[in-house]
Amino acid sequence: MNNARKTGVWTILAAGGDLKQVTSNPRGEDSPGDFSPDGTQLVFVRRDLNGVPMGIFVVNVDGTGLQRITPAGMILDGFPGSWSPAGDQILFVASTDEHHRRTIWEVNADGSGLHQLPITGCGGPIADPNSIDCSYPGWSPDGTRIVFILRTGSGKRSDIAIVNADGSGLVEITHTGDADEADWGTHPVAS
Question: Is residue 79 part of a domain?
Answer without folding.
Answer: yes
